[in-house]
Amino acid sequence: MTGLTPTGGTRPRIAVFAGPTATILNTPDLVTSNKARIRHGLAPRPGRFDALRPQRLAAPVTAYVEAYSAHPLERDAAHLYAPPDGWLDTDGAFHTTQPAGDATPVFVVELHPDDGLYPLPYLARQRDGSAWEQAATTPYAPPEAARQTFYPDASRLYEEIERFGLGDHGTPVEFGSIADFDFFRAAPSGGYTTGPDGERLGRDFFVYYPYHLQSEPHLGDLAGATNQVQAVLAAGEHDGVQWLEGSPTVDETLYWLGLLIDTTVPLVGHAAQRRHHSLSADGDRNVVDGVKYIASGVALDAQGVDRVGACVIVDELVYTARDVTKVDARPGGYEVTGGHGGIVADLGGYGPPQLTYLPTRRQTARSQLRLTVLPKEVNGVAGSLESGVTLLGVATRDGDGLIPDAMPRVTITKYSRYAAEPGGDPRVGDEVEILARIRANLAAAPLAGFVCEGMSPFGMADPAKNSALGVAIFAGMPVVRTGRGNTGGMAYRTDPTFIVGNNLTATKARLLLMAALLKYGALPPAADPFRPTHAERAVTEQAVARYQALFDTH
After folding, report:
1. Which residues are registered as beta bridge partners of 17?
2. Are the C-beta atoms of 294 and 351 separated by less than 8 Å?
3. C-alpha distance from residue 128 to each of 71, 121, 259 (Å)
4. Residue 198: HSE in the Cβ half-sphere, 13 Å Cα cutoff
5. Which DSSP category does 52 fall into?
6. What does pTM read for this prediction?
7. Judging by beta carbons within 10 Å of its beta carbon (0-12, 13-18, 19+), is residue 177 exposed, middle or buried?
8. Among 108, 124, 230, 373, which residue's Cβ finds the most Cβ atoms within 10 Å?
């Protein structure tokens, strides 16, 4: 691809992380080809052609390639070509000189296993001899009777991009001359399930297909992935990171990494709206653009330090991770959130990447929430709304990084009109969900909080929900107010006991509040969370102000 060149004599080294439910690492089901079906007496599928899947040759083979067949107008320019290697007559015999009568000009090529993958018909069948029609042996089969469609890491994806991808002028996408890559698995999409240390679906890897086997990573998995990324970058051997994840959530993870990872190199996220190999698959180009972005050095300042922060590169655009979201699975399905900026660089055309503006929010090495400066212990809360809430110490970080069991639990609640019963007292209103979550947090989640997706852009809700969230605040759980959906304006501070989320979406505000809880811990609880005193309110307002400063700058 034009512009895909390193800036200096040394190739950059890029760490590539395979994240969860990643369509960019997912492939269509391996379906038995008609060549195999006919050979074994099975009913063929309709259609003229077999789907060709990348596979490896087991032994060398000589192939005769029909000359002038690479393009419909090649023969029209035959006078510009050197002679072919020979001709095949109507009996299939090869001749080095053109024989009399009809003969097909051909090129002769030796194909070798070490050449790499070749697109070939898929010949495998099920154990009982039947054809594969889908990923599983039967519809809704359990995991042990289903094949995986996701790659376990990105090494095969990058191999296939380099093997089959074409640049704009017919040359290969030569990753090997542009950068060096190391591949890692952080809550990956595919797993190695056999052997004594076999990985388990939903614990070690996370898929969404086959759909009935969908699994989701948990907070502990996010902690482990964060620790892994930080440990890899702490070695100082990499010039950038590419993170591959499912398109609905890649922006969330990249925003989180931008808050937590202490690094001076670019953090780039990629996703795909369509599976790898499928018609008009977009993931391959997104990966190539990410390599192009990192190798160009456009994100670095004069001292070689990244100045953009965590970003998502899709559809030839570079978005700040804070300010992008997926709205639909189609081209252009990513949009800027918050109504301000968001697109920091353009990767289209033949030229090098160009920055359009620099984000002002603090990220990575400038973040006040980066992993290396977070405290090892903060205060959490426990107890009950009836008998009282107390503070207790919570260990959040050790020598390996974040402690998975200590990850904060932040709940999103959404305001909608005509939902509340009359009255503003949460003890008699209908906010049973919020009160139940407060009680559950006090029992099992000492670091917890809420995000209220309220009116747009102000973030306020109805009196009953506001009152219930006030109970959460004075039980030690900070609450953030954001506007509804993709709000274009800023949430404003109308009550200093609430944090306002600026123009963050509720999902991004949740991540920032989780990180803030790891830094500052729980709010000071009131003796009676339903009836805080003026003095208790003043102490809470002072504690909330520290949180607000983070939301104003990150």
Report:
1. 184, 243
2. no
3. 42, 20, 52
4. 7
5. E
6. 0.94
7. exposed
8. 230
